[in-house]
């Protein structure tokens, strides 16, 4: 005798798929022959198709695909075109050009299954304006969480965005203005970066200044995160109470080389040294780490490897590839250490898409690196969905496929829990229960 | 044998009225068949007409009216036209238009019996200029107490007025400049408000910053008051030693709704929760509360109720009315709690006239809401006269009808101690002993 | 048998008066026992009361008064307070103070029977803003015709208003901007004036420049008028095709005194020499002259004569009175010559109220001087009503009491056609058929 | 015996359609059972399918549709959102928002079959930046011809775009700068428009100034066109040698209404009076007219008519509809006169999309009005394709489907040569031989 099937009288539509990955649990959960039932933009049911009665509901059978929660990219820069121009060159363009860069990037990420983007810094009010334009219906885009301008020291990393502030008073004032303009979180440039003249091996603010930023943000109900390439900046961030840190490259200055330093030396003068004690302290404090594995050249690594396998490399290209591979070995090595030290569950896989060569629409690269670094495929998928949502403070709404959550999801050919690279084979993307894209290279649906 | 009547050889004029309400005592005092004797702009005598000898004095018999002390509105915004444009739209107008708005508002309030206005914030130097114009005799108006620009954080509530200051040093400097320009008191925007991008559920300043404002003001002999919608801002104001707080809405953030916050979210995300312990602490500290009962939409409530009774409401209008009524139930509920907790005597009934729909010339609405909230008519009348004057620090000069006080008074048909709504039936307004208006809709007398 | 009375079924109200002066005809027309019948803001009938049937119409019997068309003051400066500060001192005040000066002046002029004012120059956009405020209902005021900023040479007369332009291209651009801002006419400072450093004995522009201003104005359907104290500027204005000229003082430089000239010499160095040939050319060209008889000190003459008759004058005061009387003898002398040369009918009596001591609300002074200069009382009254309206290009709407005109009128005790000074005894002022004032010193009715 | 078919060895693809409209000839030409053969982005063949050999070519059979040359909209404003905000409100938005408006508009127009847009004026460099973004591949869009900022007098029509210039020298300098920034043509605001304070009934420039603009443009190989609502501005444009004029509303000022003019009077004060002699002179001079039939409220007419037929109209809405219908009767009446006077062939049907309510993607409205005004369907289709291209000076590349032209075309269900409204039933749009859109409401293909 057949068991009674659950029915959903308020359902507006349902989807059938060979596989649904829910991102619930440490490794996520894969349901075979599954159904996803929606009421408008909310999920009513996720589970085996056989347990649900769908006779009265419009049903879309997606076939032999895997459906996953929309990716949550906890770190991207919508205003940056990833066209290998450096920051200084890109910011010769006017604000309206940066807004048009956003249009391209929103589309690429959405087509690749990313339904939530946390932007970690753009110039002036551009990202706020872009969000307003989406709200007005001028264009479609993923859900956006914005910091506006990152808070940075005089001529510090991303100073060209206009968020310069030194000293607790100015920092606090800057945070307040950002929140009034619409910031959902506050991004603090806690160490140097690839901006001309920066020193990524040092903290860029004092603990007192970082505390001022955190307090000002929390006083207005806003989360904080820090650009922390230097170990020192990670320590200060811990002390100041940051909710998350980005990059976590464990860089230290090589003090023996001070005499050689000049203005534009950010690629020399330091090294990456993993600090297990600091990792433990961050874990104890509940601090999230947003890993941005693919940034810093992995798109180029992929291109060069492809060229090596096909046309072959010049000597200069081989040298570039070697240097990049060394960099990513270190980076993935740190990531592996963090996993061993119990950090899975607090590590979000994010892209840092936008700068230099880091393309939007390639979250698959970070996921592959995550698996290369020791995560299971399930852990990696959770890291790019649920953990990202937790880091962003919106896990009550997105990040998993569960009843009550918003209906943000996408479908891929194949099964990423078996082969993580299948995550790139997108065949459809839905946000708020509405079809938004048929995948890369195809038009995004209209607002 | 008739008792000897008192005579006043220096009297310049006298007024007879069926009733004079003096505002002396907790409930005020109503004298029947009364006389008010003046020497120029000062009161010599208030009491039964039969006890005073007026043969040699010009006498105006006002007849069957109630004479009251001129109303003291402890919270208004003279530069704002109450024409349902939002702050950002109004401040597209140039300063000279804001000055002309003041002309209209001064007239409306004066005609409604308000002889003292404490302005709680306008752009640039406009309110100072308007007071100069009155002093030069260009136009007539009530007695003005001014703060000029409110002190506010970057992009904080009323930032468009130009009084932005963050950090103790800048705040102190700003207070000093305001006093030098003519400020009688200092208004601090201690929480967010209805300004675009504001978060009214949070404190806008740290305690240290608020203390700096209070100390700087007190150092120059000026009182302070704070815009405090958030409970948190009321706590900080208490700690910082504010002389008064405005609104006291006891708002708290609803932290579960973080994800939906964006740029323009000040109407969502919080709730009002009365805090009796905080109320007791404020009472112990002697802090005044300026209640601004009618602001936030009560003019519209009155209009919609009238339309409901006559033409009927559309569904949308009924929805608006329901939402507004819910808001005012909460607001009046808090007011009732304050009364129960012993706050009568420290609660001033003020209008917050100017923003959005809150008309000048309608102090009667606040008085009616005060009685609805549990005050006796006498308490309400005292709250809009003597307590207002005490809050403003000018109770030695105005606020009651007593010998030695300035001759600011007005006459109404009927008896507001029996029917509070009679306060709107103004038949004459005198300031400094001089007839200034015959009531609403009639011209104000010339300077 | 009684003749049939005319009836007006659409009449909204009617006024009866002992005398109505219509300003129709060269000397105007006085109707005894007259009626004025309105339909809303328009005149339906003016004539003997006995010829009209008013049984069904609300009738206001104004009694033994003279009703006249509202005065049209073709030359005033609403932003100037007439408080004996010079231009440079007044313009230390901010724009919002100038707007408040306008409020006072509008009231004074309206209370004195002036229902139309042509403003001939104020700073920035102040007069435009004041008109907007009247349209929005913030305050009541006469009908306003505005030029905004006068067009003037670098540091020329009224340069502080912001309308500086030299050369035909800049002048044309300035005229276009003024019209776009709302200018009804264009005022050109064609000679120097009392502005510090000016030379009133010379033309301030070339004919080519003046032509550019006139052409630019006419190209946009706007009339022109010129400040012309110098004879030379009157000649240029004639050649350039000005629609009107102001002042017409026939000043010539005394070239023998050039060596003594310095920067601040505008009270010396010239003389007034009537030029009958030029007058004839202007008459042939149909150019209006706006006479501004009372400006330049006549208020002070009146005050000093009064003081002489009561308290007596000091030697210094007598000297001042002598100098002023000499000035006005010349001025009235020129006026008399113009009358003799046939200029009645093209001479508007205007006040130039605002600068230095020339009070608003004293059009009676100019009318008395006009009669002193040789006009009949009827001619003078027509010069301050119908001719003013013709000069302003609005004679189809105001300036006389005739069917079809707008209902702008006022009532005075006495009969100004017998005693011109009776024009000051105002008992009521109506604009657009609505009571606006009970006369000087009494409040203007609300918008 | 079957005739030899033509073959195209270099063909890259071919399209079959039931009907192809070529826009060649006065009425255009309709080919049944037709083929369109391309080599990359160029047309090799258009004609009967039976005459061409396609065995070796990829063939897309579009079925029972009509294929037409991509529409050429000779007048649009990409930066304006058509959301019923006025110009002043829209331009409160920053440049980056205007760029995002362009993204929406490009998409709407492209989806409706418009493959070439001539923008007639936007703020600052926004339109140039948008074209750069398309060239960089950030987004897809129609072929763009740009003027950048329109040349306008001080506070003239569209002054907020930043192209203000008065006098021949400044105008010539402005034209040079625009060409250097990338202008393809020069737009001159030759009369006032709907900008606040404008007078559309008058010419805004002198003939000398207009000549300067034309000469400067022609000197740099650029065409000119003028915003000409006033008859006077059309006469001046003729004299100055404009290549085209826009709107051609034949407006004249109504001089009898001078008195009521104030700052914001552009909706009153004039009337439309057709001038056949002027039309003949323009025809003789070879001047194109860009008719912008649908602008000024036709979208609203359509909406109100629909509401009238369904829900019914309120009195206010009926009044609005009546006023708009009167306006469009006049407009279409002028259009009919121009046709009768031989102007077919020089009249381009353009949209003026962007301002107020004139939506992008609705060229069908203008085409319907063109037929209503007396054009045949063929003439109307030619007016929106070939004549538009001739007006824009690019008829050697686009505007018809002929060998050698660029492969810009679109397909519609039905046959617009029988029913002009079928033009809206777009099923596919190709630019440069590449599929760009599947029609309205569906995503535009990626760059």
Automatic annotation (TrEMBL), chains A, B, C, D:
Membrane-spanning ranges: none
Keyword set, alphabetical order: Hydrolase
One Pfam short name: Amidohydro_1
Domain spans labelled Amidohydrolase-related: 66-435
InterPro entries: Amidohydro-rel, Metal-dep_hydrolase_composite, Metal_Hydrolase, Metallo-dep_Hydrolase
One GO MF term: hydrolase activity, acting on carbon-nitrogen (but not peptide) bonds
Designated name of the protein: Amidohydrolase
Native species: Pseudofrankia inefficax (strain DSM 45817 / CECT 9037 / DDB 130130 / EuI1c) (Frankia inefficax)
